[in-house]
Amino acid sequence: MLYRFSLYLALFLGLSTLSIAEEANRPRQLLLVSFDGGGDNRLWQRSRDFAHRADIRFTYFLSCSLVIAREDATAYKGPDRKAGRSNIGFAQTREEARTRLSHVWQAHREGHEIASHTCGHFDGAPWSVSDWKNEMQSFRAILSGAWTANDAAAEEPEGWNGFVAGIDGFRAPYLSAPDSLFEAERAEGFVYDASTVTKGPLMPKERKGVLAFGLPLIPEGPKSRPIIAMDYNLFIRHSAGVENPSRSAEFEERAYAAFRAAFDRQYEGDRIPMQIGLHFVEMNEGAYWRAMERLVTEVCGQPDVGCVTYREAIKEMEGRDGRDVSGL
């Protein structure tokens, strides 16, 4: 709305036709909303249904231990861990895992992006390149064989293995991003990483042959203190990581105000893609999901806004301001 008002004001003040044309040719404002983990099947359904209504495509950073049934847990072994260990657990049953696999495939068919969040959700800050590569290879191997492992080989969709092989986005648990991560990503065929943090929205930059996106620090709360644009960080700030449902509406309003202000700043300014990260957990009784859904409902229908996946954003940014991100 403010952007349109600025254009009308420019016309009224008699600014040059060239200046107005330059305004009209500004790139779309991109909004990238992602989810880490991909566990709760109820939230898979909620996110997919909402996306259909709101004209948005999400990026799901999937943890592969969540498509392993608990009884098969020892099929996975993380770097320097005993077999069958995972910081986020496993599917309770094979039936649960099959339902999750179905959501993954349907989301892919609906235009959402499935990316990697490793398997066991361990902090890889001290890992070597070899450790990261082993974890990345485990992700592909477990996901490739997941239908068979969960007694559903006959239900495996045609093209599943090609889909798994084509996953080329990555976010590290705990946003741990040592140099070894990027070296391993390049070697394992990942095109972009979304594990870093930046001081406000910034265009992605090449790092060791991988395009690095950074979740932005954005002002939040009465004192406008910077915080990572992610639900977990808001949860820690608002209630010290302890559920406080009695203040859920208050926390939603704070999160929404922060998201909206950060989005508007880019929409009215440099049009740098705005990123928001969430998890498949309804922290503070769903305050942060609701805040995201409010923002998306308000902005994603605008003709100069694109609510897209990371892969779609990369394609759209190719050539913007002379940048070339296509060859990574």
From TrEMBL:
Domain of life of the organism encoding this protein: Bacteria
Signal sequence residues: none
InterPro entries: CE4, Glyco_hydro/deAcase_b/a-brl
GO biological process: carbohydrate metabolic process
Protein name: Chitooligosaccharide deacetylase
